[in-house]
């Protein structure tokens, strides 16, 4: 039982990292109507900003807060001067642009800070607490707590605030939104900025578990996209629950299913995607889109 509890909590912690990126992807989609593959690269850039400031003597908490602010501005600038030229065109073209942007950001980060592994300080103490006989790391519990708070805030943003409603209105129909007096361009910039800020949180959470490298978010980005598909593009709560499912089931399958093990556990989320898309194509918590003709 102690092994099971430890695997579940560690899976929730890992899933929370996937969830942070997944929430950023959902935020961009809800505010612009597109899928942003560059989110991983933006998270890496934010993590390096925070790490660089800690090497200059800035306290970790302050460095992360500054990186979140820098990331917001970075995301807003990218939307304003690059993505705006593609957002309302062919969706496939916009997706290709975000993939190219991911490669570009990763390359620039490597050019500035090299590909050498760097140690990122942990936001939480490197201690363990005993729960039903299992040694659970404080870092795992803290990571889960951070994502629960971010999920609640994002859900409240979309449902209970004028800003959230404006972001959704701009994503659904920017022309009608502009006729209603909404500043469409400004809303798009805010959406990208908020998503980049979420990426900064993801980078700060994943960097202590992995060594800080330009490609550290490539794997989590794949899992985040899987969580978005499973949870539904329209549901922040759904993608977090899906990310937790992926993290927990991946850990349990690696230990309790012999033919999967640690080598094939990456197949777990894709098996889940296959099953969910057959039963519920809009995702576990997503809304079915109805189009009038």
TrEMBL record:
Transmembrane segments: 6-28, 35-54, 60-82, 94-114, 134-158, 190-210, 222-246, 266-285
InterPro entries named in the record: ABC_transp_permease, BCAA_transport_permease
Lineage top rank: taxon: Bacteria
Record's bilayer topology term: Multi-pass membrane protein
Compartment annotation: Cell membrane
Alphabetized UniProt keyword annotations: Amino-acid transport, Cell membrane, Membrane, Transmembrane, Transmembrane helix, Transport
Family the UniProt entry places it in: Belongs to the binding-protein-dependent transport system permease family. LivHM subfamily.
Name listed for the protein in its UniProt record: Branched-chain amino acid ABC transporter permease
Species this chain originates from: Microbacterium sediminicola
């Amino acid at each position: 039982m102690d092994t099971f509890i430890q695997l579940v909590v560690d899976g929730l912690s890992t899933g929370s990292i996937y969830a942070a990126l997944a929430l950023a992807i959902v935020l961009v989609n809800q505010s612009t109507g597109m899928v942003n593959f560059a989110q991983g690269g933006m998270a890496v850039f934010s993590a390096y900003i925070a790490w660089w400031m800690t090497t200059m003597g800035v306290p970790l908490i302050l460095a992360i807060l500054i990186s979140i602010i820098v990331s917001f501005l970075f995301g807003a600038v990218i939307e304003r001067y690059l993505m705006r030229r593609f957002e309302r065109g062919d969706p496939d073209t916009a997706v290709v642009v975000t993939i190219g942007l991911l490669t570009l950001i990763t390359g620039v980060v490597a050019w500035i800070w090299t590909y050498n592994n760097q140690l990122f300080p942990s936001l939480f103490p490197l201690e363990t607490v005993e729960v039903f006989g299992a040694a659970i790391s404080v870092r795992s519990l803290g990571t889960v707590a951070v994502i629960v708070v971010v999920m609640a805030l994002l859900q409240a943003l979309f449902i209970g605030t004028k800003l959230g409603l404006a972001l959704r209105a701009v994503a659904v129909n920017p022309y009608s939104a502009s006729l209603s007096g909404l500043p469409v361009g400004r809303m798009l910039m805010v959406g990208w900025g908020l998503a980049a800020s979420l990426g900064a949180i993801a980078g700060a959470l994943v960097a202590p578990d992995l060594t800080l490298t330009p490609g550290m978010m490539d794997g989590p980005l794949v899992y985040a996209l899987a969580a978005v598909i499973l949870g539904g593009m329209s549901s922040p709560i759904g993608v977090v629950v899906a990310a937790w499912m992926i993290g927990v089931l991946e850990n349990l399958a690696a230990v309790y299913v012999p033919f999967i093990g640690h080598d094939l556990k990456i197949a777990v989320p894709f098996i889940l995607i296959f099953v969910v898309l057959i039963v519920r194509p809009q995702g576990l918590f997503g809304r079915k889109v109805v189009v009038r003709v």
